[in-house]
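Reviewer 2 asked us to include a model.

Predict the structure of this chain.
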Amino acid sequence: MRWLFTADSDRSERKRREAVEARIATLWAAFADAADHLALVVDGKDAWDPTDWMNQLVWPIEAGIIWEIGRLPSGECELVLTAEATHSLRPLIDFVVARAPAIPGWKIATWREPATAAKANQLFSARAGFSLDELRFEARPGDHRRLDLSFYCDKLTPGDAKHARLAGFATELMLGEREFYRWVGDIRIDESESDEPSFIGRFFTKSSRQGRAMSELGRALAAHRNDQRQRRVELSNLWNQPWAERDYRTQEAEDYSGHADMYAAKTPLPEVWDAAYSPEPFFSECFASAHFCYLKVDNQGDARSQLQSAEAMAGVLQETLAMRGLGGVTGVGEGRRYHYVDLALDDVAKGIDVIRDLLQPANPHLRSWLLFHDAEWADEWIGLFEESPPPPSWAGTVGG
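Predicted model (structure tokens):
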């Protein structure tokens, strides 16, 4: 279900959304009434276990939402609602938290924040059986502009998936959940020496088996993010750049979710394209301030359309989007059933208005949509027409 780009004209979706909104109201009414009691539980002054009670309030909204309560260093109590790696639930969680009432003494959050050094060591030691201070790391740029991490510790075994998850847990404690999921790439346990330089922003040191202290991990990520900001994708002159071609194998089907039928494409931004079309979660902010998205237009309407190819549509869109400072075309693709135009939009709401104004008069098929590459917007879509039905995976024609 959509939570960012809803349409009241979709009665079925509106009815389902209203049912969820009623459950959200029930959650916050009950939580506000129990807030003082829960604060006692947080401080260990009450033996009540609120797990089942909270689950009965949260899970009817969405079973994938995870909740936690605790005490912040500021003295406030905190309720965190999160989805961890189920990125597509983020818009719903933001919607839920935005409707939370102001509760004295409580903060309601959508991400786990970085833990204090003492708290991180306490939580890690409880799970690992040894101190976080015994863990060392190296950081280097990874695929899709994320930061890869290698960890060194005599108590961790290279190649052990359980130990890699333990290193991931330590990383999230130090960086916070948001930075961990959006910016951290490969995590591995290593015991060999390396002659490669370690990446820590403007500091470069000889890599060694000892690595660096975990207290420096936040600075390493900040330096990496600053480096990526310096390398942000330039969107102003894409149309005149060299375009790289991509070919894909597809299988014939009745319909296609996502871009499953696309067999040929080209793009002036191959790095962004390959990241967006890889199996790994994609986050636009790693590359630019714009949102990377794509138009999907059913080619079964070509007989009556004035625009019968992705390139024709891209040509119509590029000049106006660029002239108005809204972004531009980042690629085109053709599929067995659909035309595809990849876009970078600085303002999605304004961008879709321009796209509709330009393309609707050309009479494309009603089954045309703007879809999003970002993992957190994977369930969001905007119809090119008010009457556009849901795209295939959302309509259930093909499993998403």
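The chain has three domains: 11-109, 117-230, 238-395. The CA atoms of residues 141 and 147 lie 5 Å apart. We have added this to the supplementary material.
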